[in-house]
């Protein structure tokens, strides 16, 4: 009995949603876009998404937006902010930002979010400052995000959105998901609060507290920090939510039991890594105390380590599934592991570095498709599949066909 109730409940709660986008059950695929965390390096996925949106517009006209083509958009930290910008509705019920606008937004606002006031301080002064509180007060970021997203709630996004954060009081990840927000008012937070929370990186920005309320006056408090401490690459988080929806008999996803990865299209975009530099070693790290782990020559080795570790483990997991089922072309991971110097920082917001990141994003499109080697764990170029731009162009066609297929089915019903 419980099951039919859940099913009815879910069915009812999703009906209103169909005016935005025909659900997967009307087509053949489940489509997911995932965006990693990485501060100012969010410009890199911004550039890649802009290319994808351009390709979709070539197929379906200038009004096409990324959110029209994905059943789930998921993002962590800066990726969560990107996710909100391309899925939150404006007054015409269209996405607030086109992908092109996002790059301009980053170029304009990053210098104010991460003001570069440290130039004249010696490293000893920097270390003292770092011990006295977060590097940035977050005031500009908070007011900018609230100004943009106003009172938009998670349940109102134009497609399903999944954004992880971490509750420092409960010491557990908190996953904000449209699926849950539509059923549970106490999980239906304002998108602005979610964005501020998922990007509250330890040592960089202050933690965020807010409360949600339901119609009976119950409240729930959240004490949140950056989602990157849980899942800097949120692809698996999104997959878990989708699997849960299937298990709960969500009508939108009903035809996919048991889960068939051949029916998925997943584009996962990283914010780059400085792996080629190999700037640390066991020799160096074995001498570090807590302060050097948190601050060493302009980087934060501890934070870099866990954010790259969790991102890579997720890629290995996803890749091993898709490679073992011989549908590896359905899962595209776009990542640049060759960042050097300032480009690998999360908060260097000089004009020069931001424009360099745009260039890095553009050259990433020209690089060959890469895939993780399951033996060595190395991210390697694949022969014979062309560039990332070629792969995106191919997937854009598939996404467009799927959208038309669903609309055709909807029109028949």
From TrEMBL:
> Tell me, which GO biological process terms does this entry list?
defense response; lipid catabolic process
Q: Which organism is it from?
A: Musa troglodytarum (fe'i banana)
Per its record, how is this protein called by name? Patatin
The active site annotation covers 77, 226
Q: Tell me which UniProt keywords the record has, alphabetically.
A: Hydrolase, Lipid degradation, Lipid metabolism, Plant defense
Pinpoint the PNPLA domain residues: 33-239
- Residue positions of motif DGA/G: 226-228
Under Gene Ontology molecular function, one entry of this record is: phospholipase activity
**Kind of enzyme, top EC level?**
hydrolase
* Family, similarity comment: Belongs to the patatin family.
Among CDD domains, the record links this protein to: Pat17_isozyme_like
Motif mapping: GXSXG: 75-79
Q: Where is this region: Disordered?
A: 1-25
What the entry says about domains is: The nitrogen atoms of the two glycine residues in the GGXR motif define the oxyanion hole, and stabilize the oxyanion that forms during the nucleophilic attack by the catalytic serine during substrate cleavage.
């Amino acid at each position: 009995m419980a099951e039919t109730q859940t099913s009815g409940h879910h069915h009812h709660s999703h009906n209103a949603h169909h005016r935005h986008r025909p659900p997967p059950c009307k087509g053949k695929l489940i489509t997911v876009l995932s965006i990693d965390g990485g501060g100012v390096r969010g410009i890199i996925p911004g550039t890649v998404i802009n290319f994808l949106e351009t390709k979709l517009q070539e197929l379906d006209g200038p009004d096409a937006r990324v959110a029209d083509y994905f059943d789930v958009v998921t993002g962590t930290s800066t990726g969560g902010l990107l996710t909100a910008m391309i899925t939150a509705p404006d007054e015409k019920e269209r996405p607030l930002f086109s992908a092109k606008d996002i790059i301009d937004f980053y170029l304009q606002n990053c210098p104010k979010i991460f003001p570069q006031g440290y130039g004249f301080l010696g490293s000893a002064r920097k270390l003292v400052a770092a011990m006295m509180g977060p590097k940035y007060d977050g005031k500009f970021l908070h007011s900018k995000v609230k100004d943009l997203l106003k009172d938009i709630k998670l349940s109102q996004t134009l497609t399903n959105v999944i954004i992880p954060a971490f509750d420092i009081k409960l010491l557990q990840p908190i996953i904000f998901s449209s699926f849950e927000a539509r059923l549970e008012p106490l999980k239906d937070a304002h998108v602005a609060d979610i964005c501020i929370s998922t990007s509250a990186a330890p040592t960089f920005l202050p933690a965020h507290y807010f409360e949600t309320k339901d119609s009976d006056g119950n409240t729930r408090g959240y004490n949140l920090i950056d989602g990157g401490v849980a899942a800097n690459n949120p692809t698996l988080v999104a997959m878990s939510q989708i699997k849960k929806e299937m298990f709960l008999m969500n009508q939108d996803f009903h035809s996919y039991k048991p889960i068939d990865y051949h029916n998925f299209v997943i584009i996962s975009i990283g914010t780059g890594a400085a792996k080629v530099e190999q700037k640390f070693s066991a020799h160096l790290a074995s001498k570090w105390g807590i302060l050097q782990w948190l601050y060493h020559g302009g980087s934060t080795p501890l934070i870099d380590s866990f954010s790259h570790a969790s991102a890579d483990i997720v890629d290995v997991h996803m890749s091993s599934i898709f490679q073992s089922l011989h549908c590896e072309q359905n899962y595209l991971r776009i990542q640049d592991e060759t960042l050097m110097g300032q480009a690998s920082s999360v908060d260097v917001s000089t004009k020069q570095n931001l424009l360099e990141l745009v260039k890095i994003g553009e050259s990433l499109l020209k690089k060959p498709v890469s895939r993780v080697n399951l033996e060595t764990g190395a991210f390697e170029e694949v022969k014979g599949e062309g560039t990332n731009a070629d792969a995106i162009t191919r997937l854009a066609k598939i996404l467009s066909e799927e959208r038309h297929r669903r609309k055709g089915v909807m029109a028949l019903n």
